[in-house]
Design brief:
The chain has 362 residues and is an alpha/beta fold. The chain is 52% helix and 17% strand. Among the domains are: 44 residues; 123 residues, no CATH class. It is elongated. It starts with 7 loop residues before the first helix and ends in a 28-residue tail after the last helix.
């Protein structure tokens, strides 16, 4: 139906509906755009698109297992991504050029002595880059007055502002891929297989010889079984206290005589022990009596010594008494009545032993 055929009321209602639909479409479009931009912002923030980054590069022998977009690790964390992996020229001393970017704040860990290690990621040939933390060098990036400066000369400590083409070289430490290591191992194993086969042949020969030796030992053991049985019987008899060996060495009558002799010797030893004990007791008593006698003699000599020291003239008096007695005898000899009673030989008068000044005649 043409629009001009509608009544004015229908036209007014239709225009209101068209206006409402237009407003709804505009609002839906705005919401859709808002959601899209929020998704882009959230994705960019999650991927670090707004985080400042610094470009680094290195040279490798081979780019096997590396591709653009692979993560770069530092201390186990993903700190950047690989941006470019390219082959160098035929005359260039290096084989592969690898460029990667490190985001803030992890580029602060990279100093002039940091290295790029190429490690194996799996057994299928995959590899990844891992940068090491600096220790003694200079920081490759320095922020100053809101600007980012890149190290230009590590020896002089010179920095220059970072531009679109600014990048810093790190030395690579590249280890062979797992596949290369496996290939080298397989080559070594193949080279060693002839020797291994020779060793196995020798082992087989040794086992065959051992089998023959064991068979001979088995035969020998079967032949020695009767001997072992006889030895077992003999040893059982030897273990018996009344066994044959005991009777061979010491007959029954000698055994009895030895027991009788031992009993007599035991009695004699007991008597001798008793006698020794008694003699010991007597000796103790005699020693005690002798000790008492010596003590008495000691007391007598002590008393005599004390008396001599108390009376210093006793020796002089004794000497005078002896002299007077001799004079008396000499006088009796000259008496005519008693002269015949004495022999013609008389003893020489005894000389005085009295020391002059100590004792004399009275």
């Amino acid at each position: 139906m043409p629009l001009q055929d509608l009544t004015p009321e229908l036209r007014t209602r239709l225009s209101h509906v068209e206006r409402a639909v237009g407003v709804f479409v505009v609002l839906a479009t705005l919401l859709l755009l808002t959601g899209f931009f929020y998704y882009l912002y959230h994705t960019a923030e999650a991927k670090g698109w707004f985080i400042p980054k610094v470009t680094y590069y290195t040279y490798l022998r081979t780019g096997h297992g590396l591709k653009t977009g692979d993560p770069v690790k530092l201390m186990g964390f993903d700190v950047g991504t690989i941006k470019r992996v390219e082959a160098m020229g035929p005359a260039d001393p290096y084989n592969v050029f690898v460029e990667f970017r490190i985001k803030r704040p992890y580029y602060g860990y990279l100093w002039s002595d940091s290295k790029v290690q190429v490690a194996a990621a799996d057994f299928l040939g995959g590899r990844y880059l891992e940068v090491t933390k600096g220790v003694n060098g200079r920081s490759t990036v320095k922020e100053e007055d809101g600007r980012m400066l890149l190290l230009a000369d590590a020896a002089k400590g010179l920095y220059e502002p970072i531009t679109k083409d600014s990048r810093y070289e790190l030395e690579a430490v590249e280890s062979p891929a797992v596949t290369d290591q496996l290939q080298a191992m397989v080559a070594k194993v193949e080279a060693a297989i002839p020797g291994i086969l020779g060793i196995t042949n020798r082992i087989n020969d040794v086992l065959a010889s051992a089998n023959v030796t064991i068979t001979n030992l088995n035969v020998t053991a079967l032949g020695a079984r009767p001997v072992l049985t006889n030895l077992a019987v003999i040893t059982s008899q030897l273990r018996d206290p009344h066994g044959s060996l005991g009777e061979w060495l010491i007959p029954t009558n000698i055994n009895r005589q030895v027991q009788t002799t031992l009993a007599s010797a035991n009695t004699t030893l007991t008597s001798a022990n008793t006698t020794v004990v008694t003699a010991n007791t007597n000796l103790v008593e005699v020693a005690a009596a002798l000790k008492r006698s010596l003590e008495n003699v000691s007391q007598i000599t002590s008393n005599l010594n004390a008396q001599v020291q108390a009376n210093s003239l006793i020796l002089g008096e004794i000497s005078d008494a002896v002299i007077h007695t001799d004079e008396l005898i000499q006088g009796l000899k000259r008496n005519w009545l008693l002269k015949s009673s004495f022999t013609g030989v008389t003893n020489e008068p005894v000389k005085s032993i009295v020391v002059p000044g100590i004792g004399g005649s009275r």
